[in-house]
Specification:
The structure is a single chain. With 344 residues, the protein is an alpha+beta fold. Among the domains are: 3-67, no CATH class; 74-146, GMP Synthetase, Chain A, domain 3, CATH 3.30.300; 219-264, SH3 type barrels, CATH 2.30.30.140; 291-343, no CATH class. 33% of the residues lie in helices and 26% in strands. Strands 2-1-4-3-5 form a five-stranded antiparallel β-sheet, with no helix packed on it. The protein has a five-stranded antiparallel β-sheet with strand order 12-11-10-9-13.
Length: 344
């Protein structure tokens, strides 16, 4: 396996692997590395170690050297140039009347390129702006549009928990967050309640989702029947964190038990499940019957022995037929029957 060292170039940024090139590097050291953007100053975040080939994005570039005093002075000079470039770019954006919000200016270590990051609600045609900036700054200019999450990561802030934003303190990558994760954690399905300052669903929903998912697979579901020390009851509420159950024991008695104190009554649950399936079939039968004409006639002698009318497959399930036959004679008319009197 290849030997690599992890280097980060921005605060709370991604970690990239580099070939240490035989240098003795420790975590926290500053180094000069050869990157896709050119020569950059970064900080070692992981010590030298072996990693699988599939974790490396080729080509594997090298560490040039450890950072020197002159390198730090150049980096400080770049920071001053970035402040000036930021003001110039903001003025040019206003001049060209472009609907974009400037976030950051970033000079490469060798000063050969400056990258501007901006946010906008729609796609922006900034070609004329790039030409204007290049002629003013006398260097290569690039503009990158970022999303609302990257904007929040750059500016930082406090979440509704009162702590600094996860993305601005330790979160390296943005992983997708869905409403399903909020539902699994029994949160009110109101996005306003669990959205971050960026307007997207809070990243912390992703952190606890596996725990809730695993716990729900172990605990009985709401509505299931369990056996408690005081007898059988039906679960009305489940507390995932405490692993406690609120159980209705009947006659207005509500009890609270830890999940380890009860046992799921599988026999009752299966009976309830089968009864639900049966009722579902009856409802389906009634729905199908309603699609047929309710007017049908059958011969008196044949109806009692037959499985139903040849026209719609309906037959009687009680003595209602005989009552009708006494009034109407030998012909049995089903039009006067209720849906509950009929089945397939």
């Amino acid at each position: 396996m290849p030997v690599v060292v992890g280097v980060c170039f921005k605060k709370v940024g991604k970690i990239y692997y580099f070939d240490p090139a035989g240098l003795d590097l420790q975590e926290g050291d500053f180094v000069i590395a050869d990157t896709t953007r050119g020569i950059e100053l970064g900080q070692v975040m992981t010590e030298i170690r072996e990693v699988p080939e599939e974790e490396i994005v080729p080509p594997l570039r090298q560490i040039i050297r450890k950072a020197t005093t002159e390198d730090f002075e150049r980096e400080e000079n770049n920071r001053q140039k970035e402040e000036q470039a930021f003001r110039i770019c903001a003025e040019k954006i206003q001049k060209h009347n472009l609907p974009m919000k400037l976030i950051e200016a970033d000079y490469s270590f060798d000063g050969s390129q400056v990258t501007f990051y901006f946010a906008a609600e729609t796609r922006v045609d900034f070609r004329e702006l790039v030409k204007d900036l290049a002629s003013t700054l006398r260097t290569k200019v690039q503009l990158h549009q970022v999303g609302v999450r990257d904007e929040a990561k750059f500016f930082g802030g406090l979440g509704m928990c009162g702590r600094a934003l996860c993305c601005a303190t330790f979160l390296k990558d943005f992983e997708p967050v869905s409403m399903k994760m909020a539902k699994e954690q029994s949160l009110f399905l109101n996005p306003i309640k669990f959205s971050g300052i960026c307007g997207k669903l809070m990243c912390c929903l992703k952190f606890e989702y596996p725990i809730y998912k695993e716990a729900k697979s172990r605990l009985p579901a709401v509505g299931s029947t369990v056996i408690t020390p005081r007898g059988p009851g039906k679960i009305t509420e489940v507390n995932i964190i405490k692993e406690t159950l609120t159980i209705d024991l009947g006659e207005g008695i509500i009890a609270h038990y830890h999940a380890s104190e009860v046992e799921e009554d599988k026999s009752l649950s299966q009976q309830e499940s089968s009864s639900d399936e049966g009722s579902g079939m009856d409802e389906q039968a009634v729905a199908e019957q309603s699609t047929h004409p309710m007017q049908m006639t059958c011969n008196e002698n044949n109806f009692e022995q037959s499985t139903g009318c040849e026209k719609c497959g309906l037959r009687l399930v009680n003595e209602k037929l005989k009552e009708i036959s006494e009034e109407t004679g030998t012909q049995k008319e089903c039009s006067g029957l209720n849906d509950a009197d009929l089945r397939i």
